[in-house]
Amino acid sequence: MSDLIAAIATGHARSGIGILRMTGSGCIQAAGAVFSLRSGKPLSSLSDRVLALGTLHDVQGRPIDHCMAFVSRAPHSYTGEDTAEFQCHGSPAALAAGLEALFAAGFRAARPGEFTRRAFLNGKLDLTQAEAVIDLIDAETADAAANAAGQLAGSIRARMEPIYDAYTDVCAHFHAVLDYPDEELPPFTVSEIERTLRAGLDDLDALLASCRRGRTVRSGIRAAILGSPNAGKSSLLNALAGFDRVIVTDIPGTTRDTVEQTVRLGRHLVRLTDTAGIRETEDLIERQGVARSVAAAEQCDVALFVVDASRALTEADRRAMDAALAAPEAVALLNKQDLPAVLTPGDLPFSRVLQICCKTGDGLGQLEAVFDTLFPDDLPCDGSLLTNERQADAVRRARAASEAALTSLGQGMTPDAVLLDVEQAMQALGEVTGRTVREEITDRIFARFCVGK
Questions:
Q1: 268 and 315 assigned to the same domain
Q2: CATH number at residue 308
Q3: 151 and 295 inside one domain
Q4: Residues 254-278: pLDDT tens digits?
Q5: Which of 303, 332, 371, 402 is buried most, with the most CB atoms less than 10 Å from its CB?
Q6: Long-range contacts for 60-64 (Cβ within 8 Å, ≥24 apart)?
Q7: Residue 243 pLDDT greater than 70, yes or no
Q8: CA 386, 388, 389, 390 torsion: positive or negative?
Q9: Mean pLDDT of 5-30
Q10: Is residue 123 assigned to a domain?
Q11: pLDDT in the model for residue 106
Q12: Do 260 and 366 fall into the same domain?
């Protein structure tokens, strides 16, 4: 892990600033082979975290940019190793030439996420903080950025470590009493482990309660638009998107596959899925589209059931309505209010019914208030929200093992048998922060990263 790596950290498009990033034991001296300070001193003479002007050279020694450099020495750096950065003008050609010169000086190309992976392996970040780095880069809303920033500051670890430490203390106390009977140690009691387990379960339940809010903050609300052919589903998506994302015609069955579009509804990031009209059909392609519509309804957070209010309900409407009502949340939209109405809100078995017109946009503003009710801003985005399934799965397993330990305790099983479940809970808790995580999991996590981070 001590080999020298380098990468362009700012992408390959033209920009105002472009950054070449390097790390590894001895990287400051190696980087000095391609960068000369304006002062005439070697790059290795530069103090930590002080910007200095100089010249970047290509493999032939030609000046290719006049830019800034700074260094950070181990262990006080992002990766925990010696690091250096050149802050250049954002010319892709100049950055590529500088990177080529670094390779000639002994660096190799960094793999995706390798800088952050080294920070994790060197103990500069735990796994939740490492995941927060890519979440912050990918954040699409201020709430998502705020929560990722909180996790990067260690909020999840701050909630997990007390549980892990309390379980460790219980196990250590039991084994100390068992292994050193002649020592004057306080006796190990069943009430001690029961108190610890109940407190741990309360804390784990609080963490799991944040999962729904955390996922919608990070990834957006999954909303499936359902309805019979020609009810106005695609018109709804286009109206919310603000442009013609989907072809709209008077011919039923125009949409034959799911179409996705991300929109903003007030503070909410919503990932809309327009679906094929749900109906019986002999058309093989359309039938596959209908199957995907049903699958979208099963996987969404909220179903938006669109119905043409100017005509009576059809069998196709009822099929789509049943699929919508099976979703975790459902909202009915009585569309085409510019035409004489046949249906009223009381005709539909939904607790939330809006009267809208996708053609004119009338009534669509009500959706924001409905989403505020369905997905309330009830938990702070301070980094304490569990935002990905890997973390949530580990917490669920920790909770299940804690519950099993408490059940065994109530059944009168011996403490050593009970503590086997406690140790399983500790193993799961360790996976959240990276204490006990397997290599294939870290490989999967850092594969999400871009090169240079």
A1: yes
A2: 3.40.50.300
A3: no
A4: 444 467 889 999 889 999 988 765 4
A5: 303
A6: 64/94, 64/97, 64/98
A7: yes
A8: negative
A9: 94
A10: no
A11: 96
A12: yes
Give the count of domains, the chain.
3
- In tens, the pLDDT along 179-189 reads 555 555 566 67
CA distance 216 to 222: 8
Angle at 81 between CA 59 and CA 113, to 5 degrees: 75
Whether residue 451 is contained in a domain is answered as no
- Per DSSP, 187 falls in state P
Nearest alpha-carbon partner for 9 in 127, 88, 126:
88
Averaged pLDDT, 69-86: 96
CA 382, 386, 390, 394 torsion-angle sign: positive
| CB-CB neighbours of 110 under 10 Å | 23
pLDDT value of residue 193: 87
- The reported pLDDT for the residue numbered 105 is 97
DSSP code for 4: -
Q: What is the mean pLDDT of residues 69-78?
A: 96
Nearest 5°: the CA angle 20, 21, 24 is 140
Domain containing 158 equals 142-210+385-446
Q: Measured between alpha carbons, how far is residue 120 from residues 85, 107, 116, 432, 449 in Å?
A: 20, 21, 6, 13, 14
